């Protein structure tokens, strides 16, 4: 156990926060610090073809140890951490044999990780937890995934009696700012399919995510001196609020869950002359997703007709799509992961992601890529933690997937 803890800590104590305002890849120079270390480590444990490109995408190969043909599979995770909360000077704390009570992360600032609020903690009574000291995030998202993949490869190298095909591993920068997949060289990677190790609770297995689009609605008004405005002024803010109120109030993030889609108004900027509304649109179902976009267009059309002028303009841009469409035709890749979990005593929790993953983009780039748990909880903040046992289970799942894929049929 100490081995995997040490490895994890050696990663999280290197700051790799990404930056959405940067145009470079990786978005921050400091991501190279961990990237370069990982390259050395992958060579040291004995992987082949270890490479890092000019954008810090890392790839490596574990060659097949069987003579028959086996599909090439891959495991992918990201080494950046979220810009939502600081990842500098992470001081991990180890809680041995967790007793199910409050964990004092920081006595000075009275920061408590409590099962009263985070009841998932109770799943891990008796286990070893790694937490923050309350002042930073932990970076289990997704350095737990990296730890697991490296540890699994090391295990397979040290246990040649476990038969497996060719395994590719890929580590990316900038996932947290939505740019983890876009410079991923799928052809060079050369896998038939892959898994991102980037989920949360032990057992999670995900191959459905949102279809996603963004919409910008511009409302044009007319400014006139308020004292002489009768019949002349058009206050774009009132028109904008009319638009907002036509959309279904209950189809918003705060009123939906599971497979329910939504419109999310996330920004308003305006004055009398012009108001801009920014929405994101989300739905797992392709037809409902299209219907949501069509509804926005229709509201714009109807309001423009009502006011007999082009007061409203809308621009809608697709962002990413549900990977289900790309994974369902190769459903055995989910079945293998599910079987692997059961074989190592993990109960699979198959559910739809209310968001996107690098895997959804990779799936549309030709690499079908479901998502598997990495074990952490409360990502992107000071309450982030990971049970070491969950990381160990993830290592076992990776090895078992490799083994099951290589069984001759
Ligand atoms: Zn992640």
From TrEMBL:
Enzyme class, UniProt record, top EC level: hydrolase
Binding residue positions for Zn(2+) 2: 141, 176, 380
Single GO term (MF): metallopeptidase activity
Keyword Plastid: no
PROSITE patterns according to UniProt: ARGE_DAPE_CPG2_1, ARGE_DAPE_CPG2_2
Catalytic activity, EC: 3.4.11.4
Keywords: Aminopeptidase, Cytoplasm, Hydrolase, Metal-binding, Metalloprotease, Protease, Zinc
Keyword Nuclease: no
GO cellular component: cytosol
GO biological process, one term: peptide catabolic process
Record-linked PANTHER family: PEPTIDASE T
Record HAMAP family: Aminopeptidase_M20
Protein name: Peptidase T
Organism: Winogradskyella pacifica
Phylogenetic placement of the source organism: Bacteria, Pseudomonadati, Bacteroidota, Flavobacteriia, Flavobacteriales
């Amino acid at each position: 156990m100490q081995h995997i803890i040490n490895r994890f800590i050696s990663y999280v104590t290197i700051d790799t926060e990404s930056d959405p305002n940067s145009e470079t890849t990786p978005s921050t120079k400091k991501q190279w610090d961990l990237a370069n270390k990982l390259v050395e480590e992958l060579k040291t444990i004995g992987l082949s073809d270890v490479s890092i490109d000019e954008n810090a995408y890392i790839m490596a190969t574990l060659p097949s140890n069987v003579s028959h043909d086996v599909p090439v599979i891959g495991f992918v995770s990201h080494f950046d951490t979220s810009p939502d909360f600081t990842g500098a000077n992470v001081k991990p704390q180890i809680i041995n044999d967790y007793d199910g009570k409050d964990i004092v992360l920081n006595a000075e600032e009275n920061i408590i990780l409590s099962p009263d609020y985070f009841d998932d903690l109770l799943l891990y009574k008796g286990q070893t937890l790694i937490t923050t000291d309350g002042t930073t995030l932990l970076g289990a998202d997704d350095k737990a995934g990296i730890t697991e993949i490296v540890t699994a490869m090391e295990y397979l190298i040290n246990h040649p009696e476990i038969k497996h095909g060719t395994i590719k591993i890929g580590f990316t920068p900038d996932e947290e700012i939505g740019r983890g997949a876009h410079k991923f060289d799928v052809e060079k990677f050369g896998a038939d399919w892959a898994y991102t190790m980037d989920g949360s609770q032990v057992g999670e297995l995900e191959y459905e995510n949102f279809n996603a689009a963004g919409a910008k609605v511009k409302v044009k008004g007319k400014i006139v001196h308020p004292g002489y405005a009768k019949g002349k002024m058009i206050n774009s803010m009132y028109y904008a609020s009319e638009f907002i109120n036509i959309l279904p109030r209950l189809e918003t993030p705060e009123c939906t869950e599971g497979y329910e889609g939504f419109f999310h108004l996330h920004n308003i900027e305006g004055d009398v002359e012009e108001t801009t509304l920014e929405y994101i649109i989300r739905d797992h179902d392709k037809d409902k997703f299209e219907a949501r976009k069509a509804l926005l267009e229709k509201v714009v059309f109807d309001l423009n007709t009502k006011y007999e002028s082009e007061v409203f303009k809308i621009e809608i841009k697709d962002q990413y799509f549900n990977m289900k469409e790309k994974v369902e035709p190769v459903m055995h890749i989910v079945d293998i992961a599910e079987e692997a979990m059961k074989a190592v005593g993990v109960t699979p929790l198959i559910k739809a992601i209310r968001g996107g993953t690098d895997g959804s983009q990779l799936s549309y780039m030709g690499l079908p890529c479901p998502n598997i748990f990495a074990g952490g909880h409360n990502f992107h903040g000071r309450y982030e933690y990971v049970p070491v046992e969950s990381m160990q289970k993830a290592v076992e799942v990776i090895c078992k997937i490799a083994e099951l894929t290589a069984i001759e049929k």
